[in-house]
Amino acid sequence: xxxxxxxPKFRVLKTGQSMTLLCAQDMNHEYMYWYRQDPxxxxxxxxxxxxxxxxxxxxxxxxxNVSRLKKQNFLLGLESAAPSQTSVYFCASTxxxxxxxxxxxxxxxxxxx
Amino acid sequence: RKEVEQDPGPFNVPxxxxxxxxxxxxxxxxxxxxxxxQDCRKEPKLLMSVYSSGNEDGxxxxxxxxxxxxxxxxxxxxxxxxxxxxxxxVSGGGSSNTGKLIFGQGTTLQVKP
Lengths: 113, 113
Known about the structure:
Radius of gyration of chain B: 14 Å
Helix content of chain B: under 10%
Shape of chain B: globular
Largest sheet of chain A: 7 strands, mixed
Structural class of chain A: mainly beta
Order of helices and strands of chain B: EEEEEEEEEEE
Distance between the termini of chain A: 36 Å
Number of helices of chain B: 0
Largest sheet of chain B: 6 strands, mixed
Order of helices and strands of chain A: EEEEEEEEEEE
Oligomer: heterodimer
Strand content of chain A: over 45%
Shape of chain A: globular
Number of helices of chain A: 0
Structural class of chain B: mainly beta
Number of strands of chain A: 11
Number of strands of chain B: 11
């Protein structure tokens, strides 16, 4: 089992460019989450999904969109990147039986110039 | 005020020392409590859940005081491998169980030889 994987691991964007971060899990988990982690801020929830075809906003959703077309994949999109979106992005997944025990991917380090 | 507050440290302790971290949370509706561990530039991983009666896992002891909205983690006989950031994590509260978590900014522990 690969667990939770994230693509890409690193990316540098210019302001206004778009990109999609991919999260994939092979544990048949129902719930998936996107977080961002900034120095001194802790992890903050961007969007989450409680099942295929469903998504919901978290604490800091502005500037991001998500899609969950397949159960194993959760995509995070930045339509027009801004320097304030420079961060480390973590994806996590869990099953419905114990939704607070989350398994995290290795993270994507994004820099927006 | 942050929903989950921790002293960021760093805590510098010698091997074999006992060290305690504290955390306070603001949402009295939160039902579940956890400590996650995050190594430098790595993803967070669940260390242990925290129960009202207190719980122990080897050298680690977690305590919860619901009245004071206070959580603690005690590490006995510190090892070099305990060096990491410890994240206090609280469930989002509310009636729907979506697995939403609120993370503290973390407390950094450095164990010295």
